Known about the structure:
Blueprint: E1 4-7, E2 14-15, H1 20-26, H2 31-47, H3 52-63, H4 71-74, E3 79-80, H5 82-91, E4 97-101, H6 105-114, E5 122-125, H7 126-129, H8 136-146, E6 153-157, H9 160-168, E7 172-175, H10 179-189
Parallel strand pairs: 1-4, 1-6, 4-5, 6-7
Antiparallel strand pairs: 2-3
Amino acid sequence: MIKLFIFDMGGVVARDFDILPEAAALLGLSEEAMLDYIREDIEGLMNGSVSSVEFWKRFTDRSAVVVDGNPLIDLFNPRLDNATISLILSIKKFCPAVCGTNTIAEHYNHHKGRGDYAVFDRVYASHLMGIAKPRSEFFQWILDKESVRPEEVVFCDDMDVNVESARALGMNSFLFRDAETFTHEFSKSGLNIQ
Length: 194
């Protein structure tokens, strides 16, 4: 019996959220070069151990590219997927739905300020938890806070690595493409909502 749905934010509820291509272009770099310079600090940024100020300082130290402003927020303008919002609202008639998201303070504050998280019963944000997906501790934190067992949870994420990590814990995990595909896959799964 399913007692909880966990949805990712970026790539599931929010679309057009990936700023890497624009940031790389703004800084005169290829996406690959940009990734090489930031890879070491991405997890720290998402788990809150590295601030965006420190992130850009380290980037400049590695790349010798001086950054004006904060591209992490200056370029961030996601749009909500209305079909996914409708799906979550439908699910919430029968079962709680929470957000489990890898995010950074600036993006979290942006979404929160716009009311984007209002569709959820609760939000579990990596930078506040100090843990990021795909680490199993991320999922265990939510299971513990929600007092549910892995098999009582449906997890939806747009990244294979996160889906596989949740599945390894015993969660019913779905690679999310869009609301229609998820609805079809969920109905075929034989899972029942409490």
